[in-house]
Amino acid sequence: YIDAGEIIKIPTSQFLSASTKPSDQGIITSLATKINNKYGRQDSDRFGLNWANLIYKNAKYKDPKYLSLVAAIIDTETSFNTQTSETSQQKLFDLTPNFLKSSLWTNRGKDIGCMDITLCKAIKIEEDLGGKNGAENRVYNTITSSNGCIYYGEQYLRKITTDYISKTNGFTQEAINYILSDYVAGEFSSRNAALQQQLNLLTGSDLTLDGDLLIYNPDCSNSEAVSNTENVARFLISQNNLGIFNQDLKIMLLKEK
Predict the structure, then answer these.
(1) Which residues lie closer than 8 Å to 186 by C-beta, 6 or more apart?
(2) Angle, nearest 10°, between helix axes 46-58 and 146-168?
(3) Are 104 and 96 in contact (CB under 8 A)?
(4) Rounded to whole angstroms, what are the CA distances from 49 to 32, 35, 56, 151, 165?
C-alpha cells in the first residue's frame, strides 16, 4: 500500500507517504525520502528528489494525497523505471523511427512510459492541449523521459480526478477509489458500470460490469461492431417503445468517454 498522510490504499508493496500539512518543499523532501527508502537508496541520492520534483511540478493538485497518488501509480506500474523489462521496452521505442511508431506501437494499443499510459490516449491529450498538427511526434519524442511520462500520465489522471473530487468534497477515500479504478479501467468506467448494472436490472440481462459501453479498437477509435451493452440498450428501447433510433443511441453511448 501507499499512504499519503491519511490512508490511500493502492496495490503496491510498501508505504510511500507525504506529510499532511507541510510546506511545498516539505512535501517534495518527504516524497523523495520515501522513494529513496523504497528502492534502497540513501536519503541524499538524487533519484528520489528528481522524481519528487517532477511529480510536484506536473501535478495539478498539490494536495499530498494527490501527489502520493501519482507516485503510487508510477511505483506500481514501472517501479520508477527500474524494471528491466520496462526500460528495455522504452529503449526499443526510442530506437524505433517515429514514422513506424504508429503502426508498431500506437495502433496496437500499447502503453509506454513510467505511468503506463496508452499511446493513443497520450496523443489525444496532446491534440487537445497543443493541437493536432504534430501531436504524435511531440508525444513520441517525450513520453519515455521522466518528465514526459509524468506529464501525460498526470494529464490523464487529472481529467479523471477533477470530476470526482468536485462531487465528493476533496480527496476522500471514496473519491480516491473511483479515481484509481478509472485510471486503470478507463475514464468514467465506474459510472458506466453503474449504467450497465441498471440495464441488467431493467432487462434481466447479465452484462459484465466492465465500464465499456462500446467496443474500441486498439488505437482508441470506436469500432463499428455492436457491443453487448448496446444490444441490451436496443432491447430495452424496443420493448418500451421509447422511439430512439439505433444511430441516435450510438451517438448517446459515444459520450461515455
Answers:
(1) 211, 212, 257
(2) 50
(3) yes
(4) 5, 8, 10, 17, 28
CA distance linking residue 251 with residue 242, whole number of Å: 16
Residue 17 per-residue DSSP state = -
Distance in angstroms (rounded) separating the CA atoms of residues 253 and 257: 9
What residue type is assigned to position 213 of the chain?
Answer: L
The C-alpha atoms of residue 111 and residue 99 are separated, in whole angstroms, by 17
Per-residue pLDDT tens for 106-163? 999 999 999 999 999 999 999 999 999 999 999 999 999 999 999 999 999 999 998 8
pLDDT, tens digit, 9 for 90 and up, residues 214-248: 998 888 888 889 999 999 999 999 999 999 999 99
Half-sphere exposure in the Cβ direction for 179 (13 Å, CA): 31
Give the integer Cα–Cα distance in Å for 115 and 74.
5
CB 55 within 8 A of CB 72: no
Q: How confident is the model at residue 23 (pLDDT cuts 50, 70, 90)?
A: confident
CB 87 within 8 A of CB 28: no
Predicted TM-score (pTM) above 0.90: no
Q: Within 13 A of 246's CA, how many CA atoms are on the CB side?
A: 10
Cell of 92: 526499443
Closest CA to 121 of 241, 243, 221: 221
- Please give the helix or strand (H or E) that residue 112 lies within, else none: strand 111-112
Dist. CA 197–CA 201, nearest whole Å: 6
